[in-house]
Amino acid sequence: MRAQLAAEALKLRSTRTTRNVALAALVIVALGASAMALAGEAEPGVDPARQVFSLAGVVQTFALVLGLLAVTTEFRHGTITPTLLVTPRRGQVVAAKLVAHVGTGAVLGLLAFGLTAAIALPVLDARGLATALSAGEVLA
């Protein structure tokens, strides 16, 4: 199973699709967070930081797309054949893909929320909008 996980991690690191989809997700989150923090009006009774942080959840869609592409492109291009020849148990292959892509999605989500915090909190503070989020709440 370790070798299978290492192979999946290598596939994720070495393909342009993973890098481009992750970069696109982070750019969209950064632009959206910037626009929302700079121009957004705070709704009464709602913390403006929480509104901006809700935008970072869009990376879930990108993580889903990455997971779908990981499996479908291997079948489309026929690269699943060597994988199944090395590890004929399909359950083990699917489990390795699942673990690798869940980890990638979690890292992508953490990067998106960190990027949102780095952009939104200073901008909201400069605009004089008080945020009810402490550093511990942001980490949570």
Question: Please, could you describe this protein's structure?
Answer:
With 140 residues, the protein is mostly helical. 81% of the residues lie in helices and 0% in strands. The chain contains 7 helices and no strands. It has helices spanning 2-14, 16-39, 48-55, 59-77, 80-86, 90-126, 135-139. Helix 2 packs antiparallel against helix 3 (48-55). The longest helix is centred in the C-terminal third of the chain and has 37 residues, at 90-126. It starts with a helix and ends with a helix. The mean pLDDT is 84.
In short:
The protein is mainly alpha-helical. Helix content is 81%, strand content 0%.
Total beta-strand segments: 0
Structural class: mainly alpha
- Percent in strands: under 5%
Written as H for each helix and E for each strand, in order along the chain, the element string is HHHHHHH
Low-pLDDT segments: none
Please render the helix and strand layout as text.
Blueprint: H1 2-14, H2 16-39, H3 48-55, H4 59-77, H5 80-86, H6 90-126, H7 135-139
Key attributes of the depicted protein:
mainly alpha
